[in-house]
Each structure stands twice: as C-alpha cells, then as structure tokens.
Amino acid sequence: MDDHFMRRAIDIAARGLGTTSPNPVVGCVIVKNGSVVGEGFHAVAGGPHAEVWALREAGEQAEGATAYVTLEPCDHHGRTGPCSEALLKAGIGRVVVAVPDPNPLAAGGLTRLRDHGVTVETGVLRAEAERGNAHWLTYTRKKRPFVTWKFAATLDGRSAALDGTSRWITSPEARADVHRLRGQHDAIMVGMGTVLLDDPHLTVRPGPAKPLRVVVDTEGTTPPHAKVLDDAAPTLLAVGVDVPYENSVRIPRGPRGLDLAALLAELHSRRIVSVFLEGGPVLAGSFLRAGLVDRVVAYLAPAFLGSGKSALAEAGVDTVGDIHRWEFEDVVPIGPDLRITARPAPPKEN
Q1: Beta bridge partners of 160
Q2: Which of 97, 141, 153, 184 keeps 20 to 30 A from 131, CA to CA?
Q3: Is the pLDDT of residue 349 over 70?
Q4: How many CB atoms lie within 10 A of CB 202?
Q5: Which residues pair with 337 in a beta bridge?
Q6: What mean pLDDT value characterizes the chain?
C-alpha cells in the first residue's frame, strides 16, 4: 500500500512543474484507515508547502494518520514555517518519505519527527520520485541547472533539409508539446547558428510562463533586430570573456567556444534550476561531449530527407567504444509523431 499512496504523491507533485523554481516540486498524501483524507502539492515558491495543503484538507483526521511525502519535510524557517512542525502539531503518527533532502539548510525534518516519536520510513519509490524532481535535485547536488536537450528530426535523423529549411519537420501537436515543456523550465538556450538561421522567438505559447532566453554568442554577433532581444521575455547573451558586448554576461572560453560548465555555473548563481536546450547540432554536441545533458526529448516525424543537417554534430565519439549510451524513459505518440525521452544509462558494473 505504501507504493500506491507514494505514487499518488509523485503524480500530484508534478502539478508544480514550472511554477515552484527555485524550490523543488513536492507532493503529499495523508491516509487514515486506508483512505486518503488530504492531498497537496507545492504550487509556487513562497507559497504553502505540500504538507500544509494536505494537512488543511485533512483537518482533524490528520491525527494518527500517515503522511506520504515525495521529499523530506523541511525543518527550517524560510518564507514558510517548518513542515516538520506542522506535521507534529497535526498529530501525524507516521511519515513515509521517498527522497531525503540534500539541502543542508532545509534537511533535518526526519530527525525532528523521529525525536518526537513519529514513525518514519524512507526510500519508498525513491527512483521514481527523484525522476519527478530531477531538475531541483540536480541543481542542488551538482550546483548547476538540469539540462534537457530537445530536438526534432526525421526518421533518418535529419533536422533540416539540404537548403537549410527546417519548418516544419514535425506536426502542430508536437510543437504544442514543445511549448508545454518550455513552460516547465527556467531557461531556454540556443546558439548563434539557430538565431541566425531561424530567428526564433523562444517564448511559451499560450500561457504566462516567461523562461529566460539564453543565447550562446561566443563572439557577440547577435543582430540587434533578433526576436530574442524583444521585451516578450528576459534574455541573457553569453559572450566570450574578451568580447566587449553590452548587456551580456562574459564567460571564459573553452577549447571549442564558451566553457559550458562555467556558463551553467553562472546560471546556477542566478537561481536557474533547469535549462531547455534547443540549440542546433553543434551546441548540442558540445553539451553532450562535456557530459552536461541530463535528459533528451526527441520528436521524430515519420518522414525521410536523405541529406541535410543531422540533429547532432561532433560529440566526442571517435570509436564505438566511446559511444554515449542512454536508456529510454518513455515513448509517446504526439499527433503523427513520436516523442522519445531518454536519460544517460548508468555505468556498467565491472
């Protein structure tokens, strides 16, 4: 039964994707005598946490009940009070947690609960809960944003025809799904090749979300009339440290352009939790070569080009032994196309 209720908490937590940054997504389900009496999720940074919403719904039925929470209840005073105290005050008798909090500023809730006689269990559906909260966990553990690389291609892996045209390889349904995913990230990133070729707007339509638009512009050549420079959403131009370009951030150079790790560190310092990488094959190859891609979302159209630009350029692989091995998370039909989501395969045990 623990798995059943924790899976419900994970599903509820996902409702906060795109609105809680820089906080995590969290879901909470309160169960008494085998029935759900309260549910809640963290909806917006600065607002009530998942446990508080669930306790409000449960009311007096929370006493002696079990709380299923996807992330360890916080134990610090921030913009809201400690969730550990709220659970104790409500008389919760048992707490089941999927993932311990890796943030030392907020952790400690489980210890407080145990010290006050509450039964605590951890690790229930941990892998599933971590995938649902991967943006924030990567941001917290690795001190950089979570990076999702998205691309659209034909079945033969082409992202553009020989003459450079690429609109539209995939369907309106796939493009609408891309906008949905954009709205779940803090920043959308492209390189100069994409800006010059496609002049993208990089906004979310429809909806109020306005992710930061990041242009990797090593030499500072973004045209002043580019759509990404309008006022529809904030924009950050990342240029070489030696480039005198106004209204930009200067990033150290690496062997093949900007130092991407330094760029992500800069975004982390700006509290950017997640990046949606929509750049062309060269930028994607650089991120993949550097080991800085955490998830791939590929939209494949049932079509063939036979020539033209590939979805991925040089990515640091000279022999099959060096191949980037990934594993599928899911494969979903989107209109006439397929959306394939993958993550890096775990290293093989010797």
Answers
A1: 309
A2: 153
A3: no
A4: 24
A5: 334
A6: 92
The span from the CA of 240 to the CA of 219, in Å, is: 6
How much is the pTM? 0.92
Candidate list 51, 72, 266, 278, residue with the active-site label:
51
Are 106 and 77 spatial neighbours (Cβ–Cβ below 8 Å)? no
Q: Residues with Cβ < 8 Å from 46, sequence gap 6 or more?
A: 79, 80
| Measured distance CA(71)–CA(9) in Å, rounded | 10
With contact defined as beta carbons under 8 Å apart, do 149 and 277 qualify?
yes
**Per-residue pLDDT at 350 exceeds 80:** no
Adjacent-strand bridge partners of 258:
253
Please tell me the predicted confidence (pLDDT) of residue 145: 98
**CA 55 vs CA 67, 234, 255: distances in Å:** 9, 37, 53
| Angstrom distance (rounded) from CA 28 to CA 17 | 15
Residues 6+ apart with CB under 8 A from 34: 1
CB 191 within 8 A of CB 279: yes
Greatest distance between any 2 Cα atoms in the chain: 69
Q: Which residue do the tokens 């003459």 mark?
A: 163
Q: Are 70 and 129 spatial neighbours (Cβ–Cβ below 8 Å)? A: yes
Pairing verdict, β 187-191 and 274-277: parallel
241, 217 Cβ separation under 8 angstroms: no
- Other Cβ atoms less than 10 A from the Cβ of 70: the count is 32
* 51 given a catalytic annotation: yes
Mean pLDDT of 2-21: 95
For 256, the 3-state DSSP assignment is coil
